[in-house]
Amino acid sequence: MRDDLKDLKAFAAVARAGGFRDGARAAGVSASALSEAVRRLEGELGVRLLHRTTRSVAPTEAGARLLERLGPIFAELEAALDVVNGFRDRPAGTLRLNVPVSAARLVLPALIPGFLRAYPEIRLEVTAEDRFVDLLAAGCDAGIRYDERLAQDMIAVPIGPRVQRFAAAAAPAYLERRGRPGHPRDLLAHDCLRGRFASGALLSPWAFERNGESVRIDPGGPLLVQIGAATELMVDAALGGVGVIYLFEDWLRPHLDSGALEPILQSWWPSFPGPFLYYPGRTLVPAPLRAFIDFIKRAP
To answer: What is the pLDDT of residues 166-180, one digit of tens each?
Structure first.
């Protein structure tokens, strides 16, 4: 039974990582050990679980079904073992978080160093991606998302700044060349740098608010990037004078403070509620996650 469990964990590690090398790094074992475990499991089950090529590894239909069922099982097993944590002086174990790239850049850096110093026996694993995932199926304890993307059966705890803003900006050289907009609708005549989510949906429309007036525009431009994975490319393009960028104010703040980017329509920048740490309410809260929740509640 113990060997079967090890082989199942090996398969899950490879399938989630998309390869034996990355799976081995995540599991803390050798790639050859994972490969042998997966071959052994496939032999016992009599079915191929992974498609293997020289460049990638992906679950077969049978493998995908198995992986989907294993997520909740592993989560429940870890929760059962975590009961022992209640008898320790300090919580220990692994905390797995799934967060958007913006949270990995703007929220976690202010929290993680202090948390890991306070709980040295906890190991933190962070996956940054902008698609919404099933936490249990992905093998994660909790995630960070904004309110409009949270499922009703999730428990949500505020994390990070409670109010954020979107900011519009461009390089001074671009504005000297193209002029400075006086109203959000003026952006329709400018080159605007656009973003889209992993789902393919555009970060649109661009929203602006002032004195009770709301304006939404759908500008065009020469560059479209995937939010998260290529956001820095969009920032670099704005710094290079390609066009106007519309992004989290905190993301652009260093460039605004240095003068590399000039704020546009600042009195129109819209604010929105900050993100939440969320986790399933139907499962026992693991000790590392409980420690993290308590830590962020105490954070200024």
So the answer is: 999 999 999 999 999
If residue 231 lies in a helix (H) or strand (E), which one and from where to where?
helix 231-239
Strands 262-264 and 154-158: unpaired
Closest CA to 23 of 5, 39, 35: 35
State which H helix or E strand residue 176 sits in.
helix 172-178
Tokens of 287: 């000790």
Domain coordinates in residue numbering, the chain = 1-59, 69-161+274-300, 163-272
CB-CB contact of 19 with 59 (8 Å): no
43 vs 264: CA distance, rounded Å: 62
**DSSP H or E segment with residue 6:** helix 2-17
pTM score of the predicted model? 0.70
The CATH class of the 163-272 domain is alpha beta
Fold (topology level) of 69-161+274-300: D-Maltodextrin-Binding Protein; domain 2 (3.40.190)
The reported pLDDT for the residue numbered 1 is 46
